[in-house]
Structures are given as C-alpha cells and as structure tokens.
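Subject: design request, 291 residues
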C-alpha cells in the first residue's frame, strides 16, 4: 500500500495486497487461482471459530479507519452454495468492527454499509420488511444520536415487541433511528454477479448486475473500514429480545470466489491504488486477533 494514506483505493487483480490485510484462522484459507481470489472454509467445526478475511483497518483506532463517503465499491463474486445452504456469514463492504475482532478497542454500537449474508439459525430481524437471515443489501448506524431516546425506552418497548400488532407499529420509528435499511437479494448466489455500492454523505444505493436492489438507504457515518470475509458464526438479535451467538459445522469445502474488487473515492481526484495477490498464494500463517 502507498505510504500516503490519502492515496486510498484499490483494485483486484492489478497490484500487491499488503500482507497485514490478510486474516485466516481455524479452517479458513485464502487462495489465488489465476485471476480468482478464493475465501475458503474446509471442514470447519462448531468447536472453533474459522474465518477467511481481508480488511484494511487491523490494529488501527476507529478514528483512523480509512473510508468516508463518497465512495464506490464494485465487487464481482460468486459462492459455492445457494442461500440457506451456505453456512455461517459472509459478505463485503464497510463497517466499524464494533466487537473488538481486529484490535484492542472499546466495544461500540455497529455502523455498516455492505452486502451481507447470514445463514440459519442467524436471525437479525432489524428491518421490518426483510427476513433476519439471507443474502441482502444493508445499512445500520446504531450509534447515531437519534437512538438515545429509544435506548432509554428499551426496557418497556422490548416486551411489547412480542405482540405482533405493537411490533408493526412500534418498530418502524426505532428502525429509522437506527438508520437501518435492508433489501433481500434474490439473485442465485452460485452465479457470478457484479455488486455495486454507492456510499454517499446522506444516502446509499446498491445494485446487482445493473439492477437497483436498494436505494436512498440512510448512510452511516464514517470513518469505516473495508472488509471481505467468510466465517462459520451465527448471530441472533431481534426487536423482541432474542439474543444469541454461536459457531456452526461447515462440512466439506465452502467458498466465496472474487474476480474483481474496486474501491475508490468519488468526490475528488485522489489517486487510485491497486493490488493483486500472486498466483498460488494460500494466505500464509494464521494471525491471531488482537485484544
């Protein structure tokens, strides 16, 4: 990567990938075969966390995460299994890594804008109109000031959300305060698709193969970091108070293949930096997460 942090952007497969961006643990591996970068899980078990990931923020304080809008991300990718059969979580986009996964930071409320997949038994029912699992375009900024009044009311609201009629009435304003918008993506995950995310100052637009799947979604605040991953975890978080986390068995081979990644600022003329991964690269030694 360039020594000048203003020269932000990258494109695969044109230039070198900084080795500190690569994270593999457990049964996770990162491979290059010709022009394709493969994020791989091989016989992962629920006894151990497994992940294959690249990110550009490892070890940084959140205030120094690299990305602020306006940014355009373009990714061409496919998966080994369809939605519902692929196990764990996977995706690509930008977030604030709120759970101390890549550095000794204080925990934070999540901010993210990304293409996100989660398999059952995950159930993150944050959008009234969208299932709690599956392949989706999604935004969230749970730390925005507008969430504070709702947080204070949570002890009263959460039990009421168990009544469907009250959930239908009470959750929409909470969802707006959390700046949550999601849309399910119906495209076959096993086929190649070009996914585009336009993260603006106020709104986010998502496209798959030139078709808009989510528009005018509320933009999370920056700075955020870029992440692309596949792991074997599941999470549960619902408005009616269900919370959970765990690991899944992933028998055999499961992968996400990527043949193009492009990230760049769209609001000025900052130079474009690119990377590639040498053919035959296998991710090197696993690196343990800090913190």
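Subject: RE: design request

Done. Sequence follows.
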């Amino acid at each position: 990567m360039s020594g000048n942090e203003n020269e932000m952007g990258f494109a695969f497969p044109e230039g070198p990938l900084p080795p500190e961006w690569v994270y593999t643990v457990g049964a996770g591996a990162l491979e290059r075969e010709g022009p394709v970068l493969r994020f791989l899980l091989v016989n992962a078990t629920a006894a151990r966390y497994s992940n294959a990931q690249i990110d550009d923020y490892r070890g940084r304080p959140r205030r120094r995460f690299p990305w602020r809008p306006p940014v355009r991300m373009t990714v061409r990718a496919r998966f080994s299994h369809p939605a519902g059969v692929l196990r764990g979580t996977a995706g690509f986009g930008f977030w604030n890594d709120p759970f101390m996964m890549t550095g000794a930071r204080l925990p934070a409320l999540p901010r993210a804008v990304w293409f996100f997949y989660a398999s059952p038994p995950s159930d993150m029912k944050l959008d009234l109109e969208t299932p709690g699992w599956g392949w989706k375009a999604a935004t969230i900024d749970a730390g925005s000031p507008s969430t504070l009044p709702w947080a204070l009311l949570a002890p009263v609201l959460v039990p009421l959300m168990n009544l469907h009629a009250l959930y239908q009435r009470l959750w929409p304003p909470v969802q707006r305060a959390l700046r949550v918008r999601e849309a399910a993506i119906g495209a076959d995950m096993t086929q190649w698709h070009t996914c585009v995310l336009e993260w603006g100052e106020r709104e986010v637009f998502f496209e798959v193969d030139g078709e808009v799947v989510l528009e005018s979604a509320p933009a999370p605040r920056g700075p955020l970091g870029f992440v692309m991953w596949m792991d074997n975890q599941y999470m549960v978080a619902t408005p009616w108070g269900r919370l959970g986390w765990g690991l899944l068995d992933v028998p055999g081979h499961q992968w996400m293949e990527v043949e193009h990644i492009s990230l760049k600022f769209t609001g000025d003329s900052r130079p474009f930096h690119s990377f590639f991964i040498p053919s035959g690269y296998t991710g090197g030694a696993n690196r343990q997460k800090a913190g």
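The chain has two helices and 18 strands.
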